[in-house]
Amino acid sequence: MENSDFQALPDSGVRKLYPYQEQAIHAIVNKLDQNADDFKLLYQLPTGGGKTIVFAEIARHLIQNKNKRVLILTHRVELLAQTSNRLNDISVKNFIINSEIKKIENQHDYPCFVAMVETLNNRLMEDDHFLENIGLVIVDEAHNNSFRKIFQYFRHCALLGVTATPLSSNKSLPLKGNYNELVCGDSISTLIECGYLCEPSTYTYDVNLGSLKVGINGDYTVSSSERLYSGYDMQFKLISAYKERGVGKKTLIFNPGIQVSWLVYDFFKEAGIQNVKHLDSTFGEKERREVLEWFRSTPDAVLTSVGILTTGFDEPSVEIIILNRATRSLTLYHQMIGRGSRVLPNKKAFTIIDLGNNVHRFGLWEQAIDWPDVFKNPDKYLEQEYFDEIERQREMTYNMPEEMRARFANSLDLLEFPVVEMYEEFLSMGIKPNRIIDDCIINHAEIIKLNAKDFEEAKEMQILLQDSIKHRLKLYTSCLSKSTKNYFNWLLETYNRKLRNSIRIIVED
Questions:
Q1: What is the pLDDT of residue 304?
Q2: How far apart are CA 414 and CA 408, in angstroms?
Q3: 324 in Cβ contact with 278 (< 8 Å)
Q4: Distances (CA, A) of 348 to 18, 319, 342, 377
Q5: Residue-wise over 478-497: b if at least 16 C-beta within 10 A, else e?
Q6: What's residue 446's pLDDT?
Q7: CA nearest to 307, candidates 220, 245, 381
Q8: Could you say which of 179, 198, 301, 416 has the lowest number of CB atoms within 10 Å?
């Protein structure tokens, strides 16, 4: 730190830097000073930690003390305005390069440029002198691969990438291929402990993801995700979780697709929750602005969306984050949850509701991650087998959530059913294993009978037991050598039909 001549921003109308931000700026400035002019550095800081504040100060320092011109790249319009506003706050004169800019008159009058990556790339393809004499390129959300195309025009510049998750989603394009070194900021848990991020409370609701398919990008496909999350049992699980944890609080719901998000909107309306709106990427700029303004000004607002609010959206008053989707992207997982982590004078905590087994896959959001290892060895965090094994292990174990166990308080001793042990015992005795299914149905019917007052409540309890049913069937089919997904789906449909008939008889009697 002693080698740096960085000077913190003097006291003014702008909020003073937090100590961890000053430390990060010192560390980054030192790295840039100590290495060649074309050194490529990647900086990691959790969502909500103030990455924009940090790199804006670095830009200010290099402009004022090193006489360097700075280019800041972003991939979202919202981030463009947010970055420019922050630079203006600290008196850094900057020029915005958006789709309307065809030529920069007197570009040497500006020490700093903020550009949309696609727009700047198009201009540089037409004229590689469109922007000249840049000393440092700063890349916001550096894990996004869209920036790579532009690096060829700035080979001799220093490069500073900033991200909460230094992991490229493309296995063949690792970040270590573009950056020489990673500098990590304070961890999520440290920022929480010091009061800079909100304290999370996480609630998981087990979901059977056996029907999901993995696409070429390594994540679950939208089509298979929409089929799963459009189902009544998933919609019921969502509304139950919200009523349990989120009523009256500002809530942001992330869904796998537009169709599901609209279904969520309709389902909430039907459930009597009126302060709900839907937002997706097809909305025009005016309509989108109106929805977000409504969300900001409505204390108990519920906003159901797709991927549009994972970056470039900053609404600190969000109290509940609902992951109504599954993802295999560590980056997306952190981006979604980070939307609720910002602190306000009257907000020091927030709630995470996970309906996609994401916590099982990645660990708690605040759990420590070895980011240097992620940076150096990204492959193991992207391998399909890695996630498949996690999912397989999860599916072989099922623990009914405590809040759900309370609904079955009269039959807790019946909830555990030894499927694998019975399968092996039946085989040794020469009994057909499919008798296990009949015994399971009898067991579930008895559980419902002991807890339901009438047939309507019994039907509701059957929905609540879907994860238990799917878990037992997963164990049963895993014992069969030639089991297929089609067989599992047929088995599940048959099981539910027989169980419904059984509870109608025993409850109405």
A1: 96
A2: 10
A3: no
A4: 17, 10, 8, 35
A5: beeeeeeeeebeebbeebbe
A6: 94
A7: 220
A8: 416
Amino acid 217 reads: N
In the numeric block, the tokens 């089509």 are attached to 223
Using a 10 angstrom Cβ sphere, with 0-12 exposed, 13-18 middle and 19 or more buried, the burial of residue 364 is middle
pLDDT value of position 498: 93
Contact partners, residue 204, CB within 8 Å, separation at least 6: 354, 357, 359, 360, 401
Note whether 265 and 227 are within 8 A (CB): no
Q: What is the pLDDT of residue 2?
A: 35
Q: Kindly indicate whether the domain formed by 192-368 is annotated with CATH number 3.30.70.100.
A: no
Name residue 95's beta-bridge partners: 113
What is the DSSP annotation of 203-262? EE-----TT--B-TTSSB-HHHHHHHHTSHHHHHHHHHHHHHHTTTS-EEEE-SSHHHHH
Helices (H), 74-201: 77-89, 117-126, 188-193
Residue spans per domain, the chain? 19-187, 192-368, 402-508
Which CATH code is given to the segment(s) 19-187? Answer: 3.40.50.300
Q: What is the pLDDT of residue 310?
A: 61
The three-state DSSP-derived secondary structure of 419-457 is HHHHHHHHHHHCCCCCHHHHHHHHHHHHHHHHHCCCHHH
79 near 141, Cβ under 8 Å?
yes
pLDDT in tens, 405-445: 889 999 998 988 988 889 888 888 888 888 999 999 999 99
pLDDT in tens, 32-65: 999 999 999 999 999 889 999 999 999 999 999 9
Does 19-187 match 192-368 in CATH topology? yes
Q: Are 327 and 297 in contact (CB under 8 A)?
A: no
Tell me which residue of 267, 231, 70, 225 sits closest to 157, measured CA to CA: 70
Q: What angle do CA 95, 98, 104 make, to 5 degrees?
A: 50
Question: Token match 């279904």: residue?
Answer: 263
Distance of CA 118 to the CA centre of its chain: 24
Structure confidence at residue 259 (pLDDT):
95
Stretches in the chain below the pLDDT threshold 50: 1-13
Predicted confidence at residue 216, as pLDDT, reads 82
Token pair for 21: 């931000």
Helix axes 435-451, 485-508, angle to 10 degrees: 40
List Cβ neighbours of 219 (8 Å cut-off, separation of 6 or more).
Answer: 169, 327, 328, 329, 332
Rounded to an integer, what distance in angstroms lies between the CA atom of residue 40 and that of residue 181?
Answer: 7
- 6 phi, psi to nearest 5 deg: -60, 135
